[in-house]
Design goal:
- The chain is mainly α.
- Helices cover 82% and strands 0% of the residues.
- It contains ten helices and no strands.
Length: 195
């Protein structure tokens, strides 16, 4: 099922309404959808490099708006809507562990790491942010930085290096982003314990 969902998402890049699909997938990825917007974003930028910045802006804005929707789900509708979504994706246990062991600062750090590297999945962190009552404006600022950095960095790489970078990105971007996220977490821990 996951492979068919991935293939369907990739096929959207060739459609005339690709920008609308990118906006929709970027929005729902941040709150309820399983497939990351990157699978649509990357082929779109490769097929029309001159629109890379436009696509990055669309993906960033709609991803942040989707994150706000996830925040509201966590804040106002956790039991009725967010819990069933997390159960459906098998993420409820991870969510509950994070919820009971994290304060607002850790959640904001997770928002940045998930925005950059999908660690943990962005939908889990947006819902968690609402459930633990992270300040909405701080949440929005963090989401803009994290998601904007991801999409604009991808746009720059794809414009600069084109098709040859695609395989590298698809195979290793998760690893690179994970290493960057791990470094960020280590810096936070070091700062917290040394301060």
């Amino acid at each position: 099922m996951l492979r068919r969902l991935y293939d369907w998402t990739m096929s959207l890049a060739a459609r005339p309404a690709a920008e609308a699909w990118l906006a929709l997938i970027s929005f729902i990825e941040s709150s309820i959808f399983l497939v990351p917007a990157d699978v649509l974003f990357i082929p779109m930028v490769l097929s029309r490099p001159k629109r890379a910045w436009r696509y990055a802006l669309i993906a960033t804005v709609t991803s942040v708006l989707g994150g706000i929707a996830g925040w509201y789900l966590g804040y106002f509708a956790f039991e009725t809507i967010a819990r069933p979504i997390l159960e459906f994706y098998g993420k409820l246990n991870a969510f509950e562990t994070l919820r009971h062991s994290s304060d607002a600062n850790v959640v904001l750090l997770l928002l940045i790491t998930s925005g950059l590297a999908h660690l943990p999945p962005i939908k889990v962190v947006t819902i968690l942010s609402g459930a633990v009552h992270v300040n909405l404006w701080l949440f929005i600022a963090s989401a803009i930085v994290a998601r904007g950095a991801r999409f604009f960095a991808l746009a720059w790489l794809l414009r600069r290096y084109g098709e040859p970078i695609r395989e590298f990105i698809e195979k290793r971007l998760g690893l690179i982003a994970s290493l960057a996220a791990a470094a960020l977490i280590l810096l936070y821990v070091a700062f917290k314990y040394l301060h």
